[in-house]
Amino acid sequence: MAKITLTATKTPELRLEAENISPDIFAGKSVAEIAQLHVFVGKESQKLGDYFEVAGESGSTAANTTIVINGDVSRVKYIGMKMTDGEVIINGDADMYVGAWMSGGKITANGSVDAFSGLGMTGGELTVKGNAGNYLGAAYRGDWRGMQGGIIRVSGNAGSDIGTFMRGGTIIIGGNVDVHVGTHMEGGTIIVKGDAKSRVGGQMVKGEIYVFGDIEVMMPGFQYRKDVDIEVDGTEGSFALYEGDIGERHGKKKGETIYGQLYMKY
Amino acid sequence: MAKIVTDVVCPFCGTLCDDLEVALDDSGEKILEVYNACAIGATKFLHSQAEDRLTRPRMKQEDGSWKDVTYDEAVEYTAKMLVDAKKPLMYGWSSTSCSAQSIGSELGEEVGACMDNTATVCHGSTLIAVQDVGVPSATLGEIANRADRVVFWGCNPAHAHPRHMSRYSIFPRGFFTGKGSKSRKMVVVDPRKTDTAKMADIHLQLEQGRDYELLSAIRIAIRGEKLPETVAGIPAKTIKEVADTLKSGRFSVIFFGMGVTHSLGKNHNIDIAIAVTRDLNDYTKAAIIPMRGHYNVTGSGQVWGWQFGYPFCLDLSRGFPRYNPGDSSSNDLLIRDEVDAVFTLGSDPGAHFPVGSVKKIAQLPSVCIDPHITPTSAVSKLHVPVAFVGVEVGGCAYRMDNVPIETRKVVEPPEGMLTDEEFLAKVLDRVKKIKGVA
Predict the structure, then answer these.
(1) Which residues of chain B, if any, have pLDDT below 50?
(2) Residue of B nearest to A46 (CA)
């Protein structure tokens, strides 16, 4: 697999908008061509080469292109946005919208990512070794389709509004999460291995949420059904199954009402 | 004999009372008295006549003192600042007319600005929720004539919108509400015992920050499903009582304020309050209306809505409108070092933003357009006083229920003073010349 290395040479004065950092765009381009790609600082269009040293070579297609990003990119937005294939490895922290609307390929952030990462993603794999910000795998403003496919795995904590309007795919958080997990969820799976604050599964229609730790305040719309012994992401255990959100609309299948499912580990 | 100007519109809050009467002296230049207005509205009219009012722009010197400059110099500084900045923030727009907002939009587009209005720290979360789930709403006229169940959630109109209850929501005798307040049931949801709460038939004194849970519980109660013993510190029995009260009305309305739009959960609180309203429509007629603050903050959302497709938090830096509160919202832009110049018009972020944001305004090139001396003008490099919209110049404003009302000019502004619209037009003209597009 061909590898392109981007090494940050300059910290942008404001934030850098670099949606061109994606295997789809880099594929088939020479190092010089890649350095000529645009990045935006506010209304000014500048060159990727002004902020990064570009080395290595790109593959002929996105699928066989790997981008390794070294140095400080904590002020760089949109890394891997809308990527369909290939791989991006970020050796450090990144700013907002990492892997937003991605449909395939793999992103590994060895540091933390800021808000709106994995926004509305439909496929692929986003792995974050540090923490994730708010709106992870959520819907873009006004959109009723949050994450629809793929997998997001965060080793650390995540912020609020995870998986808002989520319709498919899986989000796994190793640590704790803030308020509003899976609000308006209509499918997919969210696994929280640490604690959750209040408002887990509010206005949830369908889908599954697993919480290994505590929930500070349970939503009133969840009703206890039964205890189940299941395996969740490699961990076996007893879970209490709650169904809800009772106040929200719910569809029927074979005469049975389908509810969102919230599992709490004993 | 004083001259009385009738049917004057009050340019203070989103209630936009249109029945004010202003008494002028014989010359017609001085306001003597304002009738029918609340204390805040009356003060706004009288304050325009303050003797220490600024009438010319002033620039901050290196030593912190102010120096008077001409309007032309002010236009030059503002135009240059906006053109030179990579990402200027143009904030405010809530205390001015729709036509000034429209020229401002043109200016923002020309210089690739991030444009935001006071909704960003106010009812912006309401606008997000409306985009997410829609809104069943009504006009205040319908409320006055029909509403027999009135909920005030996280708002205190007795202090913030002083004439709201007497003109529209509680006391007026309407076509179907002939007994005034006697024909209405009033529910107030507030963790504090406010002056509004003291008037309520039912006061739900919920735990701070548990609005979302309580609203969810009301939805469950409306559906007749089982509730936990208490939610948000309110017993299930009381929640059922409130749900039944709302269901049994002929027309229920929920008014809500910053107690829910900017407490924990923000847009989700409104989102579920809208869901409650929608659920109630299965049983009766119900509507929900935000208690908008500035007299034309609704208008600025309207103007940008039809010009750009988004009501606030606009990012025009790339030549097309982008919108994502949390990214393109003023405080995030300031605190995350994303902007390099600040232009303020018709609002006072200095008094309402977190101190971190205000410090950034003080560090950056900045212009404040405001008739008053405010905390924002104090931290800005240039302060441009302008005529009072609604007092010294007319113009369109939108009431909190999205009804446009033309405000009236009552007196002349001090001689030689520009209006917002005139100043913005001059800056736009200068910007086009600097960029060579005019």
Answers:
(1) none
(2) B86
